[in-house]
Amino acid sequence: MELSYILNELGEEREHYFNAVAPPIIQTSNFTFNDVADFRKALANEYEAILYSRGNNPTVDILRKKLAALDGAEDALVFGSGIAAIATPILALLKQGDHIVSVAKPYSWTVKLFEHLLPKFGITTTFVDGTQVENFSTALQNNTRLIYLESPNTFTYELQDLEAVAAIAKRHGILTMIDNSYCSPLNQQPIKMGIDLVAQSATKFIGGHSDVVAGVVTGSKTIIKRIFDAEFLNIGGNISPLNAWLLIRGLRTLPLRLQRVCDSTKKIVAFLDQHPRVERVIFPFHPSFAQYELARKQMRDAGGLFSIVLKTDSVMGVEKFCNSLKRFFLAVSWGGHESLVIPSIVGFPRDQFDPANPNHRLIRLYVGLEDPDYLIADLKQALEK
Fold first, then answer.
1. Distance CA 355, CA 250 (A)
2. What is the separation of C-alpha 119 from the centre of its chain, rounded to a whole number of angstroms?
3. Can you give the pTM of this predicted structure?
4. pLDDT for 116-164, tens place per residue?
5. Which pLDDT value is given to residue 22?
6. What would the DSSP string read from start to end of 303-323?
7. Residue 216 near residue 179 (C-beta atoms within 8 A)
8. H or E element that contains 78
9. Of 40, 215, 230, 359, whose CB is crowded by the most CB atoms within 10 A?
10. Sign of CA dihedral 162, 164, 170, 175
11. For the chain, which domains are there?
12. Are 151 and 284 contacting, i.e. CB atoms less than 8 angstroms apart?
């Protein structure tokens, strides 16, 4: 299916809404029926019906079709946040006594899910170094039901060999799930590599304007229906029609925005790689990256997020650099139009800073849509202070 067709036409039956170029926002809670028979049919199979916007909604349905097609999946569900798109499927597909093997260092709220929420329901997790495929096999237990991946992660960018892990899981009848937020569907398609479920924060590249919080999970119709019929409807973590419409708008320009971000990132990485105050640049498409060849194999491109290790012997040095930036905003998240910075030191007290630990001098940068030379000038002046 052509990318331009997916982004601009798929799911959009314009003859049903006055041939408008933009789809309508069906901002309603419930839907009426012409007779009792139709009402009964909808109640019997809400997955296929338009009944109540907690489940299906025509605006959201357009978005679901596009997101599923982008991932090469059969269906998609859209949620009110990225972590909802991770937690809800896991709660739907696992039960008390089950076990998860997860890659180490996933998204912070995924860690909280695995370490704090799931144990309340008798579900345990083993974290492994995902850069070595054999670690997944070693960690499997008789009750392992899910292998959870995040490739790359979004601070130090470790990858997993998706085809190899998928093969291990299939041999043991275990589901696989990945957080694909770093790449978006345009730069990596895990389903084509054998992964069962693909989650991502639609807040990031898909939305692209820093005005929507949302998440998506894609997979086979069988698995998506299981999630929909159980925890999706029961928890009610659905997206609003307005936010779905904003994501449809974001998809229109996704290829242009993503290409701009990737191109700008490479130019800025090249500048920082040569700067005397930068000890190391961490970026999957940098030749010095430990898994560079795997990144090139699995990913079409890389950009937006990368990290640097700053040469400094004090927490004040890290703070001074970040506080001196004028074009990179201090903030969480990424994927929008604006460039961002977040130092690792915001995650622990100042008096625990250890200059001998490079992770304490780690600074994550996100490159937005600004002119790269404009951003380089800002980085240059901050590094010189």
1. 41
2. 24
3. 0.96
4. 999 999 999 999 999 999 999 999 999 999 999 999 999 999 999 999 9
5. 96
6. -SEEEEEE--SSHHHHHHHHH
7. no
8. strand 75-79
9. 215
10. negative
11. 3-252 (3.40.640.10), 255-383 (3.90.1150.10)
12. no
